[in-house]
Amino acid sequence: MKKALSMVVLASMVVMFLWACGSGDDPNVIKIHMLTEEGTGENIGTVRTTESEYGILFTPDLKGLPPGLHGFHLHTEGTCGSLEKDGVMVPGLASGGHYDPAGTGAHKGPYGNGHLGDLPALYVDDQGHATLPVLAPRLKAADLKGRALMIHSGGDNYSDTPEMGGGGGRIACGVIVE
Length: 178
Hints:
By secondary structure, the protein is an alpha+beta fold. The chain has helices at residues 2-21, 141-144; strands spanning 29-36, 39-52, 55-62, 68-70, 72-75, 83-85, 88-90, 122-124, 134-136, 148-152, 170-175. Strands 5-10-11-1-2-3-9 form a seven-stranded antiparallel sheet, with no helix packed on it. Strands 4-8 form a two-stranded antiparallel sheet. It is globular. It starts with a helix and ends with a strand. 34% of the residues are buried. The model is unreliable at 3-23 (pLDDT under 50).
C-alpha cells in the first residue's frame, strides 16, 4: 500500500512539473528564449495564445527581461536564429520582418491598417516579469502557425521612423508550432 501511494504521489509530481514547465506539444503555448549571436539562449518562460471573437489574446509568463515597454511582434519566419548582416551576427534576424500578408509595408500598430504582426507593447515590471495579457484584434489563430513571436529591446512607436518602428534590437523569441 505504501509503495502504491508513493508511486501515485511521484506520478502526480511529474505531471505537475511537466505542466509547470510548459512541456508538451500544446500549440497555444510558445516557449520564449533570450537571443544570442549563436541563436536561442536561456528559456525565460512562455506566452499562451487564446483565440476569441475579439482577436488573439497573448498571455505572457516571462522573467528575466529588462523593465519597461517592449516592442512585441509576430514575425514571418518560424525561427529565432541569427543571421549575418554587414559582417555582424544579428540575433533573431532569421525570423524575417513583421508579418504583413497584405504587403502594406507600414507600421500602424495593432489597431491600424499596417502590418498584422504589430502587437500591443509588452509591459515588463521592475522585477523583469511580464504577465500582463495583450489583445491583437486583427489576428486569427491561422495567422500564428509557423511564425516567430519576437520581443524587442525598446518600446514601439508604431511608426516607420525610426527604422523598425522604434522597437530596437531583438532580444527574445519563440517559435509558434504548426
